[in-house]
Amino acid sequence: MALIRGRSHYDPIIEDIMRTLRSAALGAAFAAFATLATFATGTAAGAHETRLGPLQIGHAWARATAGKAGAAYLEIRNGGGQPDKLVSAASPAAATVELHTHIRDGDVMRMRKVPAIDLAPGKEVKLAPGGLHVMLIGLKAPLKAGDRFPLTLTFDKAGSVTLEVEVQPVAASAPPAHQHHHQHRH
Ligand SMILES: [Cu+2]
């Protein structure tokens, strides 16, 4: 600081940089607030699609379970110009949540934990039965058709978002094409 003070003709430049930094910080804070506000509105409306920066996350669903393990599925579209990745997931419904894929091992399909799910720019990644999925381990209660539970997804660049997962009957292999929920069972 002593050096900067000594060269007073640079002060206007420093001032300008400080102003830019301050407005950038304000801008970031506002963007974060706007994201939260958008999400809150989306939840209230029961949105089937969630936006997080350049990411569009489609209808999240899970199959009903009899036991303490389950899986959640969803679609993520990266509409941005930069790659991102899903690095973790968490839910109050399960003790442990992991990112998994299925690999063929002889005649058997086995699940494998993956460190992250890559999201290439302009591409959509589907988490679906038989492939990539969000593994729910140690469910606090079996998932019943009609239930909903929160799932928080954390991305390398885009940050985190919490969405609602809808539990579908055991026989379901895909989310319903377009289903509205006017009734809620409690
Ligand atoms: Cu799994």
Textual characterization of the structure:
This protein is an alpha+beta fold and 186 residues long. The chain folds into 2 domains: 2-44; 49-168, PCu(A)C copper chaperone (Immunoglobulin-like), CATH 2.60.40. It contains 2 helices and 11 strands. Strands 1, 2, 3, 4, 5, 6, 7, 8, 9, 10 and 11 form an 11-stranded mixed β-sheet that branches. It is globular. Residues 1-47 and 178-186 have low confidence and may be disordered. Bound molecules: copper (II) ion. Residues 71, 100, 111, 133, 135 line the site of copper (II) ion.
The CATH homologous superfamily of the largest domain is named: PCu(A)C copper chaperone
Which percent range fits the helix content?
Answer: 10-25%
Mean pLDDT, all residues: 79
Bound molecules: copper (II) ion
CATH topology of the largest domain: Immunoglobulin-like
Radius of gyration, Cα only, in angstroms? 22 Å
Please give a quick description of this structure.
21% of the residues lie in helices and 43% in strands.
Key terms for this structure?
186 residues, alpha+beta, Immunoglobulin-like, 2 domains, eleven-stranded mixed sheet, 2 helices, 21% helix, 43% strand, globular, disordered N terminus
Task: Write the SSE topology.
Elements: H1 2-6, H2 11-44, E1 49-52, E2 55-63, E3 69-78, E4 84-90, E5 94-105, E6 108-113, E7 117-119, E8 124-127, E9 133-139, E10 148-155, E11 159-168
Parallel strand pairs: 2-11
Antiparallel strand pairs: 1-2, 2-3, 3-8, 3-9, 4-7, 4-10, 5-6, 5-9, 10-11
The structure holds copper (II) ion.
